[in-house]
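Researcher: Sequence recovery benchmark, item below. Answer with residues only.
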């Protein structure tokens, strides 16, 4: 009896054991299946990212994050990795308000679990630094970029590819701030190292040439930019062919460098070559061909050859409307370009409707934050003011001031410039008491921005020009207001500024 009971008990334990094994195996298989499904979903999301289909990638990555949180917990390293992926999808769409907190969370929690020197944490730190840079949070970005560079230089060596990429990223940050002299030094170091380690024809070496040439261009060092860009174009043509998009882009940059040196014949020949090649290879209706037409038209406009520029701009706009539709961003840009030409010709009856359509269309399509919307708003405001209708421009000017203050910063040169433009608008309306504080704020902000940047940098020169504009408007303001002493004081401040190179 006891033996039978023992056998029964043993059989029960064995049966339960087998049941547990079967259940455990089923759970394991289910978990493995779910893991495979998520891995496949992530692979698809990364493919969408590579194709520029960011909204589709975002949808999949949101699903993955939720699944990871449910199965593993919000702080699991795998979940954090998925959050980092989602942050990249947000960042690619300019959704920095969503990407930044994700990168911050991943870096904070991941550092505790994996350590600050883990490759995943270094990658996330770089992602966060870039997000800060894109939001003009330069101090925060610089701190992170410097930490990365210091670590990689000490652990991997000065010439390691990751160290060189960190140097390039820090240089890019300096360029965004107009600190071209600092960027110049880092970019030269990167180019020298890549030439030595990879050779002149390697894509990363050629990329470094392109970036350094751009740095020279921004500083007005066209004599240094030209040979570097020419060398790059020749390398691209030999490696990829004369009709390759990268070669054509390089030639376009070279044409602009030549144009800025007054080498108009060579620049025009390049602009025309680009248009002919693009037309022959991609067709008259291709966006690149339309862009080439616009660039050649802009070249003619700078020389006052509006009779040559106008037909090109008209052709480009007609093709854009026919092939891309009225609400395409390239179509709206083409409208704005043609409107600008008409405005310079004082053909306001043609300029105003085109400018208005472009501004309204850009706002609907990409919102006020987009640079194209800013440019089209500026174009429309200038048109109204030149027509003697500053009151129509005022609400648009105020929209730009508000946007820059809230999204770029009250102390930014962009905000100062928009305050100056609004002040000038109110001056035209003889609203002197309202115009005065705006123009004073613009002058101080732009003067500080000019002093903070390299003297030869584009940002410095632009801020200096705009600060002088604000000062000249203050002279006009005080003259019109009957405050002659203040007008004389500002005249005295302007003359030395104008005399500076």
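Model:
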């Amino acid at each position: 009896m006891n033996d039978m009971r023992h056998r029964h008990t043993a059989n029960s334990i064995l049966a339960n054991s087998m049941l547990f094994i079967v259940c455990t195996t089923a759970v394991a298989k289910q978990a493995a299946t779910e893991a495979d499904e998520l891995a496949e979903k992530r692979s698809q999301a990364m493919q969408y990212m590579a194709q520029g289909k960011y909204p589709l990638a975002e949808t999949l990555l949101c699903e993955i994050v939720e699944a990871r949180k449910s199965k593993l917990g919000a702080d699991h390293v795998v979940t954090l990795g998925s959050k980092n992926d989602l942050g990249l999808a947000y960042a690619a769409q300019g959704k920095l308000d969503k990407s930044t907190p994700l990168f911050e969370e991943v870096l904070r929690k991941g550092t505790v679990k994996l350590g600050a020197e883990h490759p995943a944490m270094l990658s996330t730190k770089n992602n966060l630094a870039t997000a800060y840079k894109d939001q003009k949070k330069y101090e925060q970005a610089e701190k992170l970029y410097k930490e990365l560079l210091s670590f990689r230089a000490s652990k991997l060596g000065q010439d390691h590819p990751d160290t060189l990429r960190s140097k390039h990223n820090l240089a890019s940050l300096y360029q965004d701030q107009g600190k071209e002299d600092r960027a110049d030094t880092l970019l030269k170091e990167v180019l020298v190292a890549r030439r030595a380690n990879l050779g002149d024809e390697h894509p990363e070496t050629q990329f470094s040439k392109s970036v350094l040439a751009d740095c020279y261009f921004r500083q007005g060092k066209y004599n240094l930019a030209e040979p570097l860009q020419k060398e790059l174009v020749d390398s691209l043509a030999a490696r990829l062919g004369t009709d390759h998009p990268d070669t054509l882009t390089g030639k376009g940059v070279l044409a602009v460098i030549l144009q800025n040196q007054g080498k108009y014949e060579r620049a025009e020949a390049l602009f025309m070559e680009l248009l002919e090649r693009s037309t022959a290879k991609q067709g008259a209706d291709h966006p690149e061909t339309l862009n080439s037409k616009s660039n050649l038209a802009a070249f003619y406009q700078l020389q006052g050859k509006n009779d040559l520029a106008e037909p090109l701009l008209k052709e480009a706009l007609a093709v854009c409307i026919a092939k891309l539709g009225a609400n395409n961003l390239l179509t709206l840009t083409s409208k704005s370009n043609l409107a600008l030409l008409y405005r310079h010709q004082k053909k306001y009856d043609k300029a105003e409707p085109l400018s208005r359509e472009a501004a309204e269309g850009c706002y609907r399509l990409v919102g006020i934050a987009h640079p194209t919307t800013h440019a089209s708003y500026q174009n429309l405001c200038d048109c109204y003011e030149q027509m003697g209708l500053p009151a129509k421009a005022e609400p648009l000017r105020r929209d730009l001031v508000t946007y820059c203050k809230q999204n770029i910063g009250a102390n930014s040169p962009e905000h100062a410039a928009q305050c100056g433009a609004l002040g000038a608008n109110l001056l035209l309306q003889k609203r002197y008491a309202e115009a005065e504080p705006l123009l004073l704020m613009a002058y101080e902000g732009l003067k500080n921005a000019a002093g903070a940047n390299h003297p030869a940098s584009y940002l410095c020169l632009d801020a200096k020009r705009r600060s002088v504009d604000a000062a000249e408007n203050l002279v006009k303001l005080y003259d019109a207001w009957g405050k002659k002493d203040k007008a004389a004081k500002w005249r005295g401040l302007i003359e030395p500024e104008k005399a500076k190179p």
